[in-house]
Each structure stands twice: as C-alpha cells, then as structure tokens.
Amino acid sequence: MILIVISQFIWPTTWWFFWPLLIWSVLFTLHIMVMRTIDIDDAWVEERSNKIADNALDLSQVEAIRKQVSRTTYGEAYDLEGDKNTQKKN
Question: Where are the alpha helices (DSSP H) in 1-90?
C-alpha cells in the first residue's frame, strides 16, 4: 500500500484501483481491530499480564508495578494483608 502511494507521486499516472484499494485497506484494518477486541475479557487480561511478567527481564520492576496497581485498586488493606502474611512466615 505504501509503495502504491509513493509510486503515485513518483510516476503520476491514472490508477483506477488506487482508491478502492485504499478504502478496502482501511475497512479491513478496522475489521481486524474490532474482531481482535471482541474476545478481550478479564481472564485474557490476567493471562496476558502474567505472560508478560513471566517473560520480563527485570522482575523487581514488575513486582513494584504489581504492588502499585494492587494498592491503587484494593487500597491500603492490600499492603496490610501482605505485611501480615510476611510476618507470619518470619
């Protein structure tokens, strides 16, 4: 598609298929975007975030982000519960 646009400026000729191809490409892209977002749910997000965390090279950063998100999502009670669990282990 990009090559067609570039060649249109380099060799200006009449191409009857340029506009239909452009419209089809935009519609196809929108269709793919919509179809890929239909299946997204909480389970997919959890699975994807766990996969990214497992593949991360800097696990301390991932744990810091996870703790920050948990604190903003669940409040300070999350930190207190986590502290109780670590105190019991010690």
Answer: 2-10, 18-38, 42-54, 59-74, 76-89
